[in-house]
Design a protein that fits this description.
It is flat, with a radius of gyration of 20 Å. It is mainly α. It folds into 2 domains: 79 residues, no CATH class; 131 residues, no CATH class. It has 7 helices and no strands. It holds the Pfam family DUF5367. Keywords: Membrane, Transmembrane, Transmembrane helix.
Amino acid sequence: MNHWLDQFSPQTARKVGIGLLIISCMTWPMALLVPFISLPVSDVFKAGAIAVFLVLGEVTFASSLLLLGRNFMKEVMALIKVTGSQSASFFVGAGFVIWLLATIFVRLAGQYLFVPGDTWLTIAAFAGLTVLLPLLLYSLYRFKNVDDNEQVKAAVLFALPGMVLDAGTVLFFQDVFPNLSPDANVVFAAWLFWGYAIGLLTGFVRKQPIW
């Protein structure tokens, strides 16, 4: 069944497999961004583009698994595995949900928060992340009984979906957030970086009894 794989040397198979895996990971954000991008095409075309991205993602992912093999995937899972009762999927899923909720919030009400030239609102936006994000993450760590030595991995897994997807929201800022002033893109990008920095920092600062 896998006779075509014999045409690749182990080194070539690994390189091609990693390349296909990267392409697969890129197709999902692209599929999510298509509805928000202003293009001179019909909705039917956009729906078709989403389907193409999803199918391409599935095909490239399956092909990468065949080329990389089970041992490679075990190595990857060993690197990101959170021991105990936790699972990598929980923190990745939680990160995606929080990213989605935050994106919807900014899309609906961001114009009241990201106002160019309003210093106090900018300070409030940054201060809000500084307080709320650690509260959320430390609560998740405690909920899943994350060991101190595993907090870094959990924090990275939580931040990863948003960091990947927000590359698209920043790149297509005016299309994703037409309710925001174009001049707010710098403040918004800085706010994102600040949030991810705070989130990752919780991986290094151990849980305290007050949490």
